[in-house]
Amino acid sequence: xxxxxxxxxxxLAEYGVPVPKGGVASTPEEAAAVAAHLGGKVVVKAQxxxxxxxxxxxxxxxxxxxxxxxxxxxxxGKDLVTHQTGPKGVPVRKVLVAEGADIQRELYLAIVVDxxxxxxxxxxxxxxxxxxxxxAAKTPEKILRLKVDxxxxxxxxxxxxxxxxxxxxxxxxxxxxxxxxxxxxxxxxNDCTLAEINPLAVAPDGRxxxxxxxxxxxxxxxxxxxxxxxxxxxxxxxxxxxxxxNAGLNYVQLxxxxxxxxNGAGLAMATMDVAVAAGARPANxxxxxxxADEARVAEAVRIxxxxxxxxAILVNIFGGILRCDVVARGIxxxxxxxxxxxxxxxxxxxxxxxEEGRKLLSQSSLDVKLVNDLxxxxxAIKALG
Length: 385
Ligand code: GDP
Ligand code: MN
Description:
Helix content: 25-40%
Structural class: alpha+beta
Radius of gyration: 24 Å
Number of domains: 3
Distance between the termini: 34 Å
CATH architecture of the largest domain: 3-Layer(aba) Sandwich
CATH superfamily of the largest domain: Succinyl-CoA synthetase domains
Number of strands: 18
Strand content: 15-25%
Bound molecules: guanosine-5'-diphosphate, manganese (II) ion
CATH topology of the largest domain: Rossmann fold
Shape: elongated
């Protein structure tokens, strides 16, 4: 689960991370009032669950409450499209109005759960700011990756190592090491999957502050954090993702055009690999789960058919506990209730009751191509373009 910047900054401040003073506003008038209260130069920032706001025109430094009000009026109620949101963008319902920071250097500091490293990794760079993705792609040597041993936890020398890598002044090493420890504390205690400060700004007078902050939480641990759960903002997610969560489906929207329905997360990933190898781009990851029933499969079909980016659907089911005839009935129910905008389907079914499932589909009026293995599936997807 993601939260907004203003919420993340509040949590990080509780752990001792310095953040600029500010307040959140839902109307242009409120934004002016916060700006007046802060006084002087302020920054007005669209609150959306996506980065890249600076480049997309969602952030503005202004000199007066009047200008803060004008900019808030220009973005509140609009959809902001950034390189992280997809073409439709996400609605801006609130703005953060904060003291405008004087920035001399923009650093990057993050902590993530890294599957590859089998643990928590601290990431730091002195080339922070809005081009961090490009830094990672073109000059990876400018990025430090430091694994935290899960049994030992963060060690003090690791905080100092980050500080030295960031080339902060000698007298700031302790402060930065302390900040790394604060961020790590916030990360661990809240079961985060990501805690990112970009930029971590160094002011001309040497002060260091989190000018931006992003926290994401492990969904499966949210039951331990009822207060965090309250921060959930479904408006910031794709409608399909909300629908999928309510149906108990494991679904992630992607930007391709081939919808995928699969049982089992491993098979789902393998299926996506096969689609990509065939030159297709998956529109989603979707694992209906081993315990799915007709209703859940039907909902999966409806979700994919409600996505205008989906041109064709690839179904890959290995029937075990989940029987293929159940899946076939689910597909028929889902397709029936969305009958106006059907898409061609490629279906591979193996395992329990596969013959019955295939028969149900081939006797239906749906545009279904039944295939026997993933190679055939790939060829059929390719043929659909
Ligand atoms: P993002 O684009 O969504 O990551 O939003 P950020 O909060 O990181 O802002 C993007 C960029 O705007 C930062 O890298 C800064 O260069 C600039 N910026 C944001 N807030 C301030 C501020 O208070 N003062 C100054 N001088 N620049 C800011
Ligand atoms: Mn940022």
